[in-house]
Amino acid sequence: MTIEYKGVLLNNTRLNSVDSKNYIRLSDEPEENYIDFEYFPNIDEILDYSKFQIFILNNKYLNAENDFFQIYDKGKDIRIGWILSISNLESREESLIDNKHLNVYKLAAYHLLLQDNDRHIIIDHFDDDPKISDIYPKDSIFMVVSGSYLQNIDDFSINNYLPSLSKYGYYIQNSYSNNVEINSRKNFCLKFRGKNKIYLTISKFNIEEFRFINDLFSKHMKSIKHPLLRFHMLYQVVEFYMDYFFNKESERIVNDFISNNGNRNDFIESISEIKGEKPRIKKIISEVDDLKDKIDFDSVKLESDCKDFLYLHNKKTVGCLGELVYRVRNLVVHEYRSIHPSDINLFEDIISEVELLIINIIENQPL
């Protein structure tokens, strides 16, 4: 952020102490014009904050002062940073002020937030006690990623963590409002309140190469509330994987047929087996459901809710999880008009569970 204060650009920061108080001084180059933002933790560490990155998030559920977490990469089991609320940055609570590891990230956050060159803010007046919250919205949440972690990641991109972040209700702040609050998602996210850590999993493929999936977790899932639209958008990811699976398997079958001079009837039968939508979705979901030690969605509850929902509408309720999700999809796509308003809460529970299922697919199945 470049702050223009009374017509002067302030784009330099340094730690400053006055009368035993710490400040982050934001100034112009000769330091003739400046603003001091009080910084409560006692720290005099010289920090190369250019090795850190900061991302501004929103969360409808985990947004209290004490909703701050160490972020760990689940695959590498290493800390990659912290998630902090703006109230946490400005907190005077002693347990926060004395947290040495946390303070390093808070100090980096102050510097980075005051020097964010992607934003330009014109301010003519500050109160006697300027705060970060005078500049940023009070519901802002910050993800600060450490330089030591970034050094070990080739072509680091926050986009590849977007599905995993959304699992906990976190979305990148952008022009799309985070205006969706769903009780079942709220209940899931609030289970992490009071915990010290959350674990993120990097996607198994580069999200930026697939526009729809990137948009799904940066725009659509935080702005679309209607249950049918949410389900339809999520199911698009399942269909995306089904197309990928079919193309991959059909290429393998064709190559085997050509190289081995195969039997034509066997070839036709093999293609027929993978052509149907049902066997493809069964394979995709079953492969994720089998990763019991890696997944963190409740497959038993999703299966139970799907059966209850299908039973309410006189549909077949036997089969594996993939078959049940497929039948729910057919019901809501072709017969949504028959769904009674009293059944919507159950449908919304299914959508929340399918959302976690989709995230786990992206986290565990490469392309």
Please, could you describe this protein's structure?
The structure is a single chain. Helix 8 (227-259) crosses helix 10, helix 8 (227-259) packs parallel to helix 13 (344-364) and helix 11 (299-312) packs across helix 12 (321-334). 42% of the residues lie in helices and 17% in strands. It is elongated, with a radius of gyration of 25 Å. The longest helix is centred in the middle third of the chain and has 33 residues, at 227-259. It is of the alpha+beta class.
Terminal-residue CA separation:
37 Å
Structural class: alpha+beta
Radius of gyration, rounded?
25 Å
- Low-pLDDT stretches: none
Largest β-sheet summary: 6 strands, mixed
Helix content: 40-55%
Silhouette: elongated
* Total helical elements: 13
**Secondary structure: number of strands:** 12
List the secondary-structure elements in sequence, H or E. EEEEEEEEHHHEEHHEHEHHHHHHH
How much strand content do the residues show? 15-25%
Question: What is the residue-mean pLDDT, rounded to a whole number?
Answer: 87
The main sheet orders its strands as: 11-6-10-8-7-12
